[in-house]
Amino acid sequence: MNDERLTVAEAAGAADERPPERPEQPRQPGPGQEERPERAARRRRRGPVLLTLLLLPGLVTVIGVAAFLALTGGPPSSGAEDPDADQAAEVGIDPSYVPWLRQAAATCTLLTPSLLAAQIDQLSGWSDGTDDLSGQKGIAAFTDTEWRTWGRDDDGSGKASPRDPADAIMALGRRDCSLAAEVTALRTAGEVNGDLVDLTLAAYATGPDAVSEAGRVPPTARTYLAEVRALLPRYEALDRADSGGGAGTATGVLPAAPVTPLTVTSPYGSREHPLTGVTRLHTGVDFAAPQGARVVAARRGHVVFAAYTKAYGNRVVVDHGTIEGKRLETTYSHLSSLDTAVGRTVEAGTLIGRVGSTGLSTGPHLHFEVVLDGYYTDPRPWLANGG
Length: 387
Known about the structure:
- The chain has ten helices and 13 strands.
- With about 375 residues, the chain is an alpha+beta fold.
- The strands form three sheets. Strands 1, 4, 6, 7, 8, 10, 12 and 13 form an eight-stranded antiparallel sheet that branches.
- Helix 4 crosses helix 5, helix 5 crosses helix 10 and helix 7 packs across helix 8.
- The longest helix has about 35 residues.
């Protein structure tokens, strides 16, 4: 760059030092005369010299920029390598929505960007118009009353508005997480049964009271639930950046057997309930044990529930914290007695109750569950000796 500037300076100086030419009056050659070639050439050279002096500084700038880009690897990418832009293009939404979907989904472990996106698609088709009949506004279809509860100025624009996509997405995340907490508490207490995502969506559609009254997804919520579920595959690409592989099932994470020995009488999976006759997911494993046998915590944790429930009888739920970023809980049901209380810290092997047959039960046994991030999973791979 410096050498090039010096060359230009020299070129400009050389031009300045050229002795001024005597002005000539343009003269047409007379008949039979021809203009001398050297004079014509000199006159033709005047224009290019002046043009060179005018254009060379700009040319040097262009050369300098080109050299800089060559050293730095070229101009910045136009977004082709931006994962948010790639995923937004793949699912067909505005790229600016993607980071807000991720941030809203991080509000609680139940949510994913794809779930929020499917909800928004079902609610508004990503249109920020107003429904004159319902009064719903923005892509998340908030009414004024709902917005007063959930709306905030999340993007710092100076105004919280349901028409602001960032504010609307974050508000929807807060609302969903609040509903998820309500239905999780209902399911922990044995008052409702079913998948937490389904129960949360049902609570969104009909309210938590309707879910509690039905004890499951109420019929009035099934259409909404089916429509959101049908849209989920369209937005799965949005979850890729957050899919850290998951904790899966880890052998030996639960070092203490909840009862001894571990004799399985009914495994995890679909089955017909022996009392109700309804075929549904058996959410845990039934271990045979005599009345009054010791039931212990399978891993260190905190007792978050210990009370009688209609379906599970005496039930204890222990929160073991997170495993690879996912919350792990274990449950112990149909107990004849409770030997712990909410708020207590228990170690692996600590007595928490006694085997019984309370609630919907056909005889003494322990119904044992493992809940990972709100989802039931087969308990046996988690136990050190399998069961």
